[in-house]
Design brief:
12 strands; elongated; seven-stranded mixed beta sheet; 33% helix; five-stranded mixed beta sheet
């Protein structure tokens, strides 16, 4: 049987919480080569190879089928590819890493409380300001899909490379699409989330690739592992 490759976040709080989650279920993940090593082991599971990757890379490699199973945010699967959710199996949410992808507008836009109000603003923006409505975001795929469903086409995305919430105050953009856990950072920058502005609720998930090869014996081993973790089988 070909072994299974499990990818877990490589650093920070996500790594700590992921390893703790597996340990609570009797599967201890260690990093024999130290914090700089990208190779790990799962004690007692010789057929599982553990790799440590950034969360965004885990999403990409799951979709491509280069790793079998991994822990990453639901938002990153949706953002990495329009077809990302179809390429994976969300086996289980892990109850940490909670955050929402939201649409936030300046507090001064008192008449803009819902997405349909924003649609009116977008269509009116060019005639008033001689330019497109500008949206600062790192979530380009999610933004385009959500706005297309809402029938909003008259806008321009400004790709955010830094603190997205600061973009309106600095004049770089008019509104933002950003990820938030509490909304406090947005509020501190004079922004508020639209009443129907939550585009995607996200948290860390145990995710299985549908695009990798799953011969019968490998799939049987995977499903046994998933059952032990209280996760949905493939």
């Amino acid at each position: 049987m070909r072994g299974i490759t499990l990818a877990v976040p490589s650093k920070g709080r996500l790594e700590e919480l992921t390893r703790a989650w597996f340990a609570e279920r009797g599967l201890t993940i260690s990093r024999p080569g130290g914090a700089r090593s990208y190779l790990g082991v799962m004690e007692g599971e010789a057929d599982v190879t553990v790799r440590f990757f950034p969360a965004s890379e885990i999403a990409r490699e799951l979709i491509r089928g280069n790793i079998d199973i991994g822990v990453t945010g639901r938002d990153l699967i949706h953002e990495t590819s329009e077809t990302g959710p179809d390429a994976v199996h969300f086996a289980r949410s892990l109850d940490f890493g909670h955050a929402d992808v939201v649409i936030a507008v300046p507090d001064a836009w008192i008449d803009v409380t819902h997405l349909h109000d924003l649609a009116d603003v977008a269509s009116d923006f060019r005639s008033r300001h001689k330019r497109w409505l500008r949206i600062a975001t790192k979530y380009i795929t999610i933004t385009r899909q959500h706005f297309a469903k809402a029938g909003i086409a008259e806008y321009r995305i400004v790709e955010s490379l830094g603190a997205t919430e600061a973009a309106p105050a600095s004049g770089v953009a008019d509104i933002v699409v950003d990820i938030t856990s509490t909304g406090s950072t947005l509020a501190a920058n004079g922004l508020r989330v639209l009443d129907d502005g939550v585009m995607l609720k996200s948290e860390a998930n145990l995710i299985v690739s549908r695009t990798t090869e799953w011969p019968a014996d490998k799939k049987a081993y995977l499903n046994d592992l998933l059952k032990r973790l209280g996760a949905g089988v493939l």
